[in-house]
Specification:
With 266 residues, the protein is α+β, with helices and mostly antiparallel strands. 18% of the residues lie in helices and 25% in strands. It has one domain: Jelly Rolls.
Length: 266
C-alpha cells in the first residue's frame, strides 16, 4: 500500500510553485497521506507518557514534547520510513532540484521525528541546526506533516515563515489535518509556530529533515537573501532585543552572535 496520496507521486509537477514561493521556497500539499491510511491513524496510544521524550517549557518553546530517543508507533514509523525512502528523496529532488539529497541515519534517536504541542504552546521564530549530525553535510529541506484530526482554525498553531533575519512574519500556514508543508532550509529560512489557544486536542506533527552532499546546494535558486550555506546552531530570535541581555537568555545571545558573524563572513 502506498501510504502517500497518489497525486503526489511526481512532485516535479509542483517544482515551479515551490521554487517561486515567498519568502523562500515551499509548497503546501493537502490530503498528503492516503485517505484510508490517514483515517485509521491513531495517535491516542502514543503520547508523552514515555520517559524518553523531551519536554520544552521556555520563553521560546512552550508546552512542547518531542519523541527523541523513543520508539515510534507502527504507523508513525511507516510514515517516517516512507519519508526517508529512496523513492521519496528522489521525488524531493524533482521538486527542489537540490542535488545529492539524502536523509540522516540518526533517525528518531538523534533528531525527533514526532512532535506534540499543548494548550498555550508555541515555538519561537528560529532557524534549525545547519548540518547532518554525523557527516556535517548541509541541512537543506524540511517536511512537516500535520496529523491531528478535526483541528479548528481558531485554535491557532499555524506555521509561520519569516524574513531572512527572522524579525518579520511573512506568511502563516494554517494547521490542517493531513496537510504537508515542505520548505527550503538554509541559514536564513526562519520559521516557528503561533500560540495554541485552549482546547482539548494536542497539535501533533511528523518532522523529517533532509541533507545534501553538495556544499553549494542553493546555487540554482534565485533567493531574496544570500544563497550560501554555513554551519550554525539552532538559532532563535527573541521578540525584544533587550531580552537577549537577560541572564536566562545568555545561550540565545551566544547563538545569535555566532549566526550574525557567520552571516557577515558569508
Amino acid at each position: 500500500m502506498n501510504i502517500i496520496n497518489n497525486k503526489y507521486n511526481d512532485l516535479s509537477n509542483y517544482s515551479e510553485d515551490f521554487i517561486r514561493a515567498k519568502p523562500y521556497p515551499h509548497i503546501i500539499l493537502d490530503n498528503f497521506l492516503d485517505e484510508g491510511f490517514f483515517s485509521n491513524l491513531d495517535l491516542e496510544n502514543f503520547n508523552k507518557v514515555s520517559s524518553k521524550g523531551l519536554t520544552f517549557d521556555t520563553d521560546l518553546e512552550k508546552n512542547k514534547w518531542t519523541s527523541k530517543n523513543d520508539k515510534l508507533s507502527n504507523n508513525l514509523k511507516l510514515i517516517v520510513d516512507k519519508l526517508n525512502s529512496y523513492d521519496f528523496i528522489n521525488n524531493l529532488y524533482q521538486l527542489s532540484k537540490i542535488e545529492k539529497l539524502f536523509s540522516t541515519t540518526e533517525g528518531n534517536t538523534e533528531l525527533a521525528n514526532y512532535h506534540e504541542m499543548y494548550n498555550s504552546g508555541f515555538l519561537g521564530t528560529h532557524v534549525d541546526h545547519s548540518s547532518e549530525p554525523k557527516t556535517g553535510s548541509p541541512h537543506v529541506l524540511n517536511i512537516i506533516l500535520y496529523l491531528t484530526k478535526n483541528w479548528v482554525k481558531e485554535w491557532g498553531g499555524e506555521t509561520i515563515l519569516a524574513n531572512h533575519n527572522g524579525t518579520v512574519i511573512k506568511k502563516k500556514i494554517e494547521y490542517k489535518s493531513n496537510r504537508a508543508l515542505i520548505f527550503l532550509h538554509s541559514p536564513f529560512t526562519f520559521h516557528g509556530v503561533t500560540k495554541i489557544k485552549d482546547n482539548l486536542k494536542k497539535r501533533s506533527t511528523i518532522y523529517v529533515d533532509y541533507y545534501s552532499k553538495s556544499l553549494n546546494p542553493y546555487n540554482h535558486l534565485n533567493l531574496d537573501f544570500k544563497n550560501v550555506w554555513f554551519k550554525h546552531p539552532t538559532t532563535f530570535i527573541l521578540p525584544n532585543f533587550k531580552d537577549y541581555f537577560l541572564k536566562k537568555n545568555s545561550k540565545y545571545l551566544k547563538k545569535m552572535i555566532k549566526h550574525k558573524i557567520k552571516t557577515f563572513l558569508a
